[in-house]
């Protein structure tokens, strides 16, 4: 997987269907241990709820894991529809937990699918989405006099500028698209941004806010 969408921060959304309350909790996650801890905490926090239905997609060590749970709802009415929505939106490294408080009226299989799907959809609409894609890190050493020009270039080019260190010169890391080092260095020369030293670091997923 070369790229995927995810969320910037946790989101909570809620809908009510025939007096049943559906609380959708959408989380950004990076590993299985984090998922397990969040599920445990939510079940403890909402211990009095009838159901805690779950779906998640996790890319960890370049392995994609997808799981869903109906948690006592009729098979295929909660976890699976939510997982399909995550897949359709290319959302990854996300965990959705929808907590249901039963309102006394049965919704039927179709009603349950709509309620759980609508809960997740509402959470996605309220979330700040980001894109993660394979890129690389370019470490630069630059003179103080050129640092403002570098920041302006990065802002205009939507390049993440990270790990800024101030010493004899300014040392920082740019998160760039794979294979873009030569073009960026040419741009710097055209804009009279003098680079003292540079080196390419490891490849990694880098983030762009959508």
Question: What integer is the average pLDDT?
Answer: 94
**Alpha plus pi helix count:** 5
What coarse outline follows from CA principal-axis ratios?
elongated
Radius of gyration (Å): 22 Å
Provide the CATH top-level class of the largest domain: Alpha Beta
What is the N-to-C order of secondary-structure elements (H for helix, E for strand)? EEEHEEHEHEHEEHE
Major beta sheet, specifics?
A: 5 strands, antiparallel
Q: Which percent range fits the helix content?
A: 25-40%
How many E-type strands?
10
CATH architecture of the largest domain: 2-Layer Sandwich
Sheet-strand content, in percent, reads 35-45%
Count of the domains: 2
The CATH superfamily label of the largest domain reads Impact, N-terminal domain
Cα distance, first to last residue? 19 Å
> Which fold name fills CATH's third level, the topology of the largest domain?
Ribosomal Protein S5, domain 2
Counting helices, strands and paired strands, the structural category is alpha+beta
Q: Poorly predicted ranges (pLDDT <50, ≥5 residues)?
A: none
Question: Could you characterize what this model shows?
Answer:
It is built from 5 helices and 10 strands; from the N terminus they run E-E-E-H-E-E-H-E-H-E-H-E-E-H-E. The chain has about 210 residues and is an alpha+beta fold. Helix 2 packs across helix 3. It is elongated. The mean pLDDT is about 95.
